[in-house]
Design goal:
The chain is of the alpha/beta class. It has a single domain, classed as Rossmann fold. It is globular.
Length: about 260
Amino acid sequence: MAVPAYLSSERCDRMSMISNSEAIAAWSAMPIDAIEAYDDQGDFPKRHLMNGNLLRMLGPVDGRKVLDAGSGEGYLSRLMADGGAEVVGVEPAAALLARAQKIEQERRQGIRFVQADLSTLPEVGQPFDAVVCSMVLLAIPAWQSAMAACVGALKPGGRFVFSITHPAFENLYPTWRDHGHYQLDRYLDEYEMPEGCAPDFHRPLSAYINEVVGLGCRLTELCEPRLDPQVASESGIDAIESYVALPNFLIISAERDR
């Protein structure tokens, strides 16, 4: 079986320090075939590791207003709309937004997609009952402003669920594939990770936790998803057992206290 694109170790040359606008431009330059490769569940890790946990941690969404902060091509917005949520998706990258809007025009689920930078979030219907920000904060240079905007968009008592690549196990698949185990020699620094054609940034877990608590939120759950061994065995993907042994993703749920 061919290795899926999300597991590729191919890299694009890029400046080591970039601005929000440069990051957005990089995401906007994603090849259309990569964007269209997403299905109704996203991709392999989202289907088998992320989606069920994200939706469980959000709680019942039927009749609730939910902000999909960094909605990409919209697959998670559509899953929440299927569950009865009133969804607003915010996405700054034009190519991803266009794909989301095209599918919404075809399916007419009532999702409103808005082009905006999360770090300078405009009025999009706040306050919301819940905000989900999946695999987004790690890709934003001005992530603290973006997280503050997500929390600020919530009603008091509202739920904020966000996911990131686990800071202790980044590059899990290629490292395991190349060495048969995981190796880590750098954690506490903050730095850009040159993976793919759009940037991600490493920050220690304490940075995210301290920030969300400092914004007046109470942590309710930390989830480190583990791939089902049978799914791994049946996938035919070499070295995918790394996802059984170690958590490549981290999902955090918090509630706004004030």
